[in-house]
Amino acid sequence: xxxxxxxxxxxxxxxxxxxxxxxxxxxxxxxxxxxxxxxxxxxxxxxxxxxxxxxxxxxxxxxxxxxxxxxxxxxxxxxxxxxxxxxxxxxxxxxxxxx
Length: 99
Known about the structure:
Strand content: under 5%
Structural class: mainly alpha
Shape: globular
Largest sheet: none
C-alpha cells in the first residue's frame, strides 16, 4: 500500500511540476536539468520526459534483481538511480565470490 501511495503522490506532483517529480526520483543530475529545459521550452515535452523517467524507474524497481542486472540501459536516461530502479548497484568484485 505504501508503494502505491508514493507512486500516486509522485504522479500528482509530476502533473503540476514535472521537474519536481524528476528531482524526487533522480536527484539533481543531468536528467533533472534536461527536464527543466524541456519544461521551459514547452510544458508538454517536460511532462513526457518526466513520465518516461518514472516509467523506467518503477519498471526496473519492480523487476527481479537478476533480470535488472542483465537489462540494457534505457535510452535517454542518465541517472544510475533510475537505471537501477532505486536499488544500489553492487559491482561484482565487491561481493568477494559470494552470491
